[in-house]
Specification:
This protein has 221 residues and is an alpha/beta fold. It has helices at residues 15-29, 36-54, 58-72, 80-90, 99-107, 120-130, 147-157, 171-180, and strands at 2-5, 111-117, 138-142, 164-168, 184-187, 208-210.
Length: 221
């Protein structure tokens, strides 16, 4: 059996650091007329548009915050935005509880493929710093995780689709497109999943498993 496993917010904490920066950004912006929620909505709007152009990662996120600042409070623009966002890349990787032990358990039983999206340099840097790379048989970083990318991955792996499981926290990138491509999926929700990754999970009787913790994979695989 082949287990495709997401990285950010499945193996290690990720979005909580972006959320902290957003909170600091809104406070520093100190917009005279817009509430925190309204500024956050503006950020989401810009990110939703720009991910199609610039992709994911801290560099794109920094560009997005600069654009929001220019739109809402151009007088506040400055190097402080880049300095604020730099705290994300400088933060130590925080592996989620139970992940390391569970991967070690699964590695001898199945073929493990880390399957993540984003800026390749940034993602591979996080993978190296996490200390988890040796627990995977291979790693793939793609620009987008959609049904087409899962179809392509399935073709490369040359295995029956019902023997390939995608494991992750994001309905939009991990679960729904994998199911659409005919694979199976394990959804492990994370409280801090990025708002743009939210979607209603597709019903897929017999092909979808929902767990509360990564460590529960040992009970199923």
């Amino acid at each position: 059996m082949i287990l495709l496993i997401d990285a950010d917010d499945t193996l290690w904490e990720n979005n909580i650091y972006f959320e902290r920066v957003i909170d600091h950004f809104v406070v520093r912006l100190n917009h005279p007329h817009m509430t925190h929620a309204e500024v956050r909505a503006a950020i989401d709007e810009v990110e939703r548009a720009n991910t199609k152009l610039h992709g994911y990662g801290t560099e794109s996120f920094t560009r997005n915050l600069r654009e929001v600042c220019t739109r809402l409070a151009p007088e506040a623009a400055g190097d402080w935005i880049a300095e604020l966002c730099r705290t994300i890349t400088e933060h130590p990787i925080e592996v989620i509880e139970g992940v390391r032990e569970t991967l070690a358990y699964l590695q001898v039983r199945h073929r493990l493929v880390m399957f993540t999206k984003g800026n390749p340099a940034e993602q591979f840097g996080k993978i190296e710093r996490s200390g988890l790379s040796a627990l995977f048989h291979e790693t793939r970083v793609v620009k987008e995780k959609d049904a087409a990318s899962y179809e392509a991955m399935s073709a490369e792996l040359d295995q029956p689709k019902d023997s390939i499981w995608m494991i992750g926290n994001s309905p939009k990138s991990d679960i729904n497109p994998a199911l659409a491509a005919g694979l199976r999926a394990v959804w492990i929700p994370h409280d801090a999943t990025w708002v743009l990754e939210h979607e209603e999970v597709t019903a897929a009787p017999g092909r979808l498993l929902t767990l509360s913790r990564f460590s529960e994979l040992r009970d199923w695989f």
